[in-house]
Amino acid sequence: MLELTPSGALGTLYVVATPIGNLGDITQRALAVLKSVDLVAAEDTRHSGQLLSRLGIAVKFVALHEHNEQRATPYLIADLQAGKNVALITDAGTPAISDPGTLLVAAAHEAGIRVVPVPGASAVVCALSAAGIYAPNWLFYGFLPAKASHRRDALAQLKTLPYTLIFYEAPHRIMGCVADLAVVLDGDRRITFARELTKLFESIHSLPLAEASDWLAADTNRQKGEFVLIVEGAKAVEDNAEQQHLRDTLTILLEELPLKQAAHIAAKLTGIKKNTCYKLALSMRDDVDEEEN
Fold it and tell me: H or E element: which one contains 289?
């Protein structure tokens, strides 16, 4: 339930997630907040007006989008300071995540106004949860630059990161974006296309990055809709000189000593962790056994 603002007190800014497609994904808490606030700050008042009308909610709107956020924020802060409760929403999903709202939220904190997140749909989390990718560490980048040269520069900075990379992309840029991904990153990496999530034509498809442009071009329908792109991270780059030194050391030790003892001595000689030495020694022994068989 939404707490009423006491007379003379500051209002509360509610950051409210709305569905990214399927209206059934609106939460009960989001409905309660949107019905009770004095004002809704929306990225597109016409789009949000239709959404809230379908949900049976009538409320006063004010526009807050990328072109007017700097100008509109002081007025909304004044409303909050006057005791009004304000809900911040975006066209779809969670506000201030690759969408407007960050300036307003920061200004509210600066003014001592309570900011309350009302969680719900998020395309990036939705896509990752259904991609089937083991990604304990991942980086959400958002939208890459629209200009090809800037996009490639941005990707070059991400190329060596070992984390799963997640991007948003629009349909009119998807072909160019995927082509640049394949050029700058390793084509052997896998990419997952999560398209039109929670909507009628929702699709999730994975394939090697080197094959992605041809796959998109084979059917123009695959190029339509809003995309979440999930790209496998870079393989861990080992220090080749250090690795070779360890391998040479283990080769000598394994000729005279049991595996565990050889790994223990190699760790002392090289300064490399004992567990790393043991794993390499084990793989070297297995390789020898396979050759002999």
Answer: helix 274-292
